[in-house]
Amino acid sequence: MNGDSFATMGGVRFEHEGSLSNRAMRVLMASPLPTAEVALKVLGLRGDGGAAAVAVFTLLGRDPRFVVSGDGVWSVASQPAVDVRRLREEEFVVVDVETTGGSPGTGDRVTEIAAVRVSRGIVTESFSSLVNPERPIPSAIVHLTGITHEMVRGAPTFREIAHQVEAMVQGNVFVAHNAAFDWSFITAEMERAMGSTPRGRTLCTVRLARKLLPELPSRALGALAEYFGVEIESHHRALDDAAATARVLLRLVDMLEEHDVEDWSALEWFMKQRATAPGSSKRRASPRSMRSA
After folding, report:
1. Measured CA angle at 46 (ends 45, 52), to 5 deg
2. Which of 16, 177, 236, 259 is catalytic?
3. What is the DSSP string of 206-219?
4. How far apart are CA 90 and CA 223, in angstroms?
5. Cβ(170)–Cβ(12) below 8 Å
6. Where are the domains of the chain?
7. Is residue 154 within 8 Å of 148, Cβ to Cβ?
8. In this predicted structure, which of 14-23, 123-132, 249-258 has the lowest mean pLDDT?
9. What is the tens place of the pLDDT at every residue in 204-227?
10. Fewest beta carbons within 10 Å, which of 46, 96, 194, 263?
């Protein structure tokens, strides 16, 4: 699981890394600061205190994320209490990407993307598209996915579908099978297309299955689909894999509830616990919910 403290209980949001207000957020989350220090650390302004104060108030004064005390000390506004949802009532978006290779850091790009929205335990919406990666697809990847140069030549670039991807992901818990892989590609593509970076909660069904089903020799999507009786029509195609992952996710949530793990706080606690020794019949206690943790 991944995310920062400002989004611990919220869904994914997209931030423009270069914006001054987000720089202020990062600075003030570390510690409240007087106006002069905010001017220096966020805006790089020294000297004229009056002009610096005007600049800080112009930037932050109408932003509800920030508050300033009577003596001019700025801090991050207290967040409203968040209702504790059961896991099956969470809003998830299950994402799968097919790519030209294994790392966006070496220039690999997305060739297909799918997102399946799961609301309160029900699949409510899906989106998928082939994507022109604007670079060749290696023959080994063509063999693996079946996605050819001809198929993506007339497909939209990621920049052309970025707003649709943002609309599907925004506000939901990001789920994927090997989430670090899909998250890294979504991050790289959104930064390239829109100059924005996703932040928020993520959930990896590989890690979750490893925790819940340690006896399985493999936690690959195909193995889990077979274990749960979930059909995958076309493996290594984004929509079919995302839909299968969504169904696997719901079965894993059922299993979590059998372990008395019913909300996100309890899930985080559960994922940090060490596995019980093989052969041990002792059941590790776990909090049922945030209220009882």
Report:
1. 60
2. 236
3. HHHHHHH-TT-S--
4. 25
5. yes
6. 19-76, 87-272
7. no
8. 14-23
9. 999 999 999 999 999 999 999 999
10. 46
Q: What is the DSSP letter of 48?
A: -
pLDDT at 11 over 90: no
Helix (H, G, I), strand (E, B) or coil at 92: strand
Asked if 87 contacts 268 with a C-beta cutoff of 8 angstroms, the reply is: no
Residue 224, classified by CB atoms within 10 Å of its CB into exposed (0-12), middle (13-18) or buried (19+), is: buried
**pLDDT of amino acid 90:** 93
Query: What helix, strand, coil percent values describe the chain, rounded to 5?
Result: 45, 20, 35
Note if 236 is an active site residue.
yes
Vertex 9 angle, CA 271 and 42, to 5°: 115
**With 70 as the cut, is the pLDDT of residue 36 above it?**
yes
What number of CA atoms fall less than 13 Å from residue 228's CA on the CB side?
23
- With tokens 């060490």, the residue in question is 274
CATH of 87-272, one of 3.30.70.970, 3.40.920.10, 3.30.420.10, 3.30.830.10: 3.30.420.10
CA distance 273 to 123: 30
> Which H helix or E strand runs over 248?
helix 238-258
- pLDDT grade, residue 78 (50/70/90)? confident
What was the pLDDT predicted at 62? 85
Q: How many CA atoms lie within 13 A of 21 on its CB side?
A: 13
